[in-house]
Amino acid sequence: MRKRTMAGLLMTVFLFVGLAGTARAGRKISMAVEFVDHAAAAHIALKKGWFAKKGLQISSFDNYITGIALAAAMSHKGIDVAYMCLCPAILAYANGHVPIKIVCGTHKYGYGCLVNPKKIKVPRDLLEPGIRIGCPREGSASDVVMNRFIDHFHLNRGDVLRQVRRMPPPNIMMAMKLGQLDAGFLPEQFPTLGEKLGYRRLADASELWPGMQGSVVVVRRDLIDEDPEEVKAIVEVTKKGIGFIKAHPKEASEIVSAALQAEGSRIFPVKMTSVLKIFQVTPAVIFDSLTRHMSCDVGIDPAGVQAVIDYMAKLGYIRRFKAEKILDLRWLHE
Fold first, then answer.
1. Three-state DSSP class for 278?
2. Domain 111-208 belongs to what topology?
3. Torsion over CA of 85, 295, 292 and 137, rounded to 10 degrees?
4. Could you tell me which of 57, 187, 233, 328 has the fewest CB atoms within 10 Å of its CB?
5. In what order do the strands lie in the sheet with 81-85?
6. What would the pLDDT profile of 90-129 be if each residue is shown by its tens digit?
């Protein structure tokens, strides 16, 4: 009888150990995104509960007004995972020395030049005296696209930059509405929203930089080292989110629209909310943005990332480095 009891006890212990060995330890993950529809896959995954179903414990999900703000936060706020534009991710790595790796993409393109059609008909009109141009900070993806615009249309860089006022995308939209700006270089969803308000898209990233990598998913190296299975799960969930956008663009747009509207009312001051109602990010805006002006895809071309690094180095924003130092794409091929 005693032998049976001991045998039963040992079996229970072995069973418990076996189960413990297969369960995910599950560290809490701090996640952040930019306040744009570039992170559509993450918003959808959060709404659908896909992170939780993979055993991922998302302790926070914060929105940042720009990629530059998110890049700065990564250096001191302990963000584990970020859905962000490639250019500020490169800045965070190269200048902020943030230990991150890019593990997959979320889309290509996703930026445009929006203008007041009464004042600006052709690119050279941006050089006219008195024209005021809005653009986010140096090194942002919108800024890099603006520089490609200057190169593409053979404009004088100094003359264009003298017309530029630096501010976040929502401020650019408000300034254009108030007649304080005549043009803006912006990330999606803002150019699409602007078109619906009567502004004109003068140029699109797909025209200025064919194959341009828009946004990426970055992960801190310590998470990769400590639990690569969790990183694998993040990539798988992102793939699922991108697949959902392609298969169900209408529902995807409704989810992302609701998420951005809710977040907008939280992150902007109360005095700005009445103005922001003019710029409602409706499902129709998100649908056009996701399906017409971005190519949603988790794939990444290392040569394309290297081209962005080289161009940012040419502009003097960073020192050149090899793309392989910031890329870890092993989970894309599993």
1. helix
2. D-Maltodextrin-Binding Protein; domain 2 (3.40.190)
3. 10
4. 57
5. 57-64, 28-34, 81-85, 213-220, 100-109, 294-296
6. 999 999 999 999 999 999 999 999 999 999 999 999 999 9
